Amino acid sequence: MTEMTPATPQEVAAALRDASAHGRRVNVRGAGTKSRMGGPAQPADLTLSTAALRRVLAYEPKDLTLSVEPGLPWSHLTALLAAERQMLPLDPPCAAQATVGGVVLANCSGPRRRHYGAARDMVIGMTYATMDGALADCGGMVVKNVAGLDVQKALIGSFGTLAAVTVLNFKLAPLPEATRTFLLTFPSAQELAEARNRLLSGALQPTALDAFSPAAARAFALDGWCLAVRASGGPAVLARYQQEFSGAQVLDGAPEADLWRLIEQFPAAHPYLARAGHPISALADVLASSPGASVSRAGTGISYLAFDHRDALLAWWNNPASARWSRVVEASPGDLDEYWAAPGPELDWMKKLKAAFDPQNLLNCGRLYGRL
Asked: What's the gap between Cα 111 and its chain centre?
């Protein structure tokens, strides 16, 4: 297998054009932190690394816009923005090693998704190379852009199966004045869910709202069924939260940052990880459905269930109770044959899109669970 490290978008496009002309399979990769996600890639004839595509192309702090190449390390990006008190609040796992392109193309997000949205809400434009060697632009560098087709939304979360992204444009958010986290502990998952319901029906709208099973709480040096409420804003806002949660454990400063860093890294900390999409009313049932560590985005209906062994994951997967929710194996070592319980009609549209972008099926073959 040949490996190339192109230094410009034009070199990426030329490599794809040559591979297409010779029918060679191509694997485009960044730091490799998403290799356990989305199903394993099949062997390729050529690997294109984005390691040399790591420039900051444009940064306008006053406009809250940024343009970078996909190989830029995520940690470098967050440090650059923090210096201007700005952020891209995606909170991806493997943040210390991941690249910007990997985060976006795997559609990674974390605890603050409910408040700020996901990558599709932050990416405002892209440049990408197609298998015929063309470089195309979509979107732009302004927050409100209506020119052309919204192709970037198809590329986000595609795991590189459609095109090789060479430039990413973002809209940014200002860092909040301050943050504080309130930790509430309950004797049961049901009581946790009831407290969550009261919070969601009230006036307070936390930046992040995560729930942990006892096994997950222990990994975070906490106890019991735990609800973490992260507030952000000025002194008056934080004082209102303090009044509401007067009996809670309170974290701020470095201890708060350390906790949320552990929470963000939870999906990458276990050999097997399942993701369940469910009504928010099912929070208690989902958290209690496995004896292992479970973390739920308690305000959005997305839960992550960790398993240390393949058999434990399959026991949960084959339990009729868990079949009530939308499930996918988020990450595994690649030893599972079934990743989607029952793909719906969306799969046909995905195949048509794949055929339009990559008619020879040469790009990142095997990703997206081997179905494309």
From this structure: 10
